[in-house]
Design goal:
Layout (H helix, E strand, L loop, with lengths): L4 E3 L5 E3 L3 E2 L5 H14 L3 E3 L7 H11 L7 E6 L6 H15 L4 E6 L9 H13 L3 E7 L3 H10 L6 E5 L7 H9 L3 E5 L12 H10 L3 H12 L2 E2 L6 H8 L8 H8 L16
Parallel strand pairs: 3-4, 4-5, 5-6, 6-7, 7-8, 8-9, 9-10
Antiparallel strand pairs: 1-2
Helix pairs in contact: 1-2, 1-9, 2-3, 3-4, 7-8
Bound molecules: nicotinamide-adenine-dinucleotide (NAD).
The site of nicotinamide-adenine-dinucleotide (NAD) has 26 residues, from α9.
InterPro entries: AKR, Aldo/ket_reductase_CS, NAD(P)_OxRdtase_dom_sf, NADP_OxRdtase_dom
Protein name: Putative oxidoreductase
Organism: Streptantibioticus cattleyicolor (strain ATCC 35852 / DSM 46488 / JCM 4925 / NBRC 14057 / NRRL 8057)
Length: 274
């Protein structure tokens, strides 16, 4: 594949760029994931709550791509926190995907008000031990949630998937992740296509390289070491978003991007979202 892999803290290889399917209805996910696999994507990011694990799984099966060349991520939804509920929810996700294992299973949100993410994570550890998730991790965990897992559980999360884009650069989280060999995965890497792709700095860097705004934003992530999972249902954009491995941003470009950080969240605050 044209996409380089990063090595997770348990030795598993994960493509640094994958395809996200949030807000894609099940039947459209079948088509979109098919386009993505044709374009060379091998990593797919879904979740129980997206309602498209079935369409995603059917597209994976229909593609004929060998299972061991795919990297499939899904996530445990909020209503299923707790040890037993997590084990049940995982079984249901596997059934909907039509798979015998996933490559990465994530707790979607920490839900601090419920305070069950430690027990929930212990269920992920069991799933991992059984070989039904090659790697386990979390999503939307803040540093203090991660610290608690590190203190109270035994498998260091392989990944923390967080909102991250040039307007929310997450420097502290990234440094903490790096210090614990947790891979940083960026959700909404394109800022959901709202505003960021029209930003003047992004446009200037894009013009300089003869690339699109989406391409230079993805390049910024890759050069920072982030895993990215851009979403699109438009075949030309799906191809455009993976065509980012034959050019590089220089130090001046990266300095311009650094100035775009505005601490601006598009999604909920993980400390209060439940
Ligand atoms: P994104 O940042 O990937 O932006 C997607 C939008 O950008 C598209 O809908 C389209 O409008 C636009 N776009 C895409 N490619 C483009 C291009 N080449 N040119 C112009 N516009 C383009 O947004 P996202 O879907 O929110 O995030 C990506 C993935 O991250 C999701 O699909 C999902 O898998 C994951 N995610 C996870 C969480 C979480 O809580 N863990 C939350 C949100 C998203």
């Amino acid at each position: 594949s044209k996409v380089p892999a990063i090595t997770l803290n348990n030795g598993v290889a994960m493509p640094q760029l994958g395809f996200g399917v949030w807000q894609v209805p099940d039947d459209e996910a079948f088509t979109a994931v098919g386009h993505a696999l044709d374009a060379g994507y091998r990593s797919i990011d879904t979740a129980a709550v997206y309602g498209n694990e079935e369409g995603t799984g059917k597209a994976l099966a229909a593609s004929g791509v060998p299972r061991d060349e795919l990297f499939v991520t899904t996530k445990l939804w909020n209503s299923d926190h707790g040890y037993d509920a997590t084990l049940r929810a995982f079984d249901q996700s596997l059934t909907r995907l039509g798979l015998e294992y996933v490559d990465l299973y994530l707790i979607h949100w920490p839900l601090p008000s419920r305070d069950e993410y430690v027990a929930t994570y212990r269920a992920l550890e069991k799933i991992h031990q059984e070989g039904r998730a090659r790697a386990i991790g979390v999503s939307n965990f803040q540093i203090h949630h991660l610290k608690r897992l590190l203190d109270e559980t035994s498998v260091v999360p392989a990944v923390d998937q967080i909102e991250l884009h040039p307007q929310l650069q997450q420097a502290e989280a990234r440094a903490f992740h790096a210090g614990h060999r947790i891979a940083t995965e960026a959700w909404s890497p394109l800022g959901q296509g709202r505003g960021l792709l029209e930003d003047a700095t992004v446009a200037r860097v894009a013009a300089k390289h003869g690339r699109t705004p989406a391409q230079v934003v993805l390049r910024w992530h890759l050069q920072l070491g982030n895993v990215v999972i851009p979403k699109s249902v438009t075949p030309s954009r799906i191809r455009e978003n993976i065509d980012v491995f034959d050019f590089e941003l220089d130090d001046a470009d990266l300095a311009e991007f650094a100035r775009l950080d505005a601490g601006r969240r598009l999604g909920p605050d993980p400390d209060t979202f439940d």
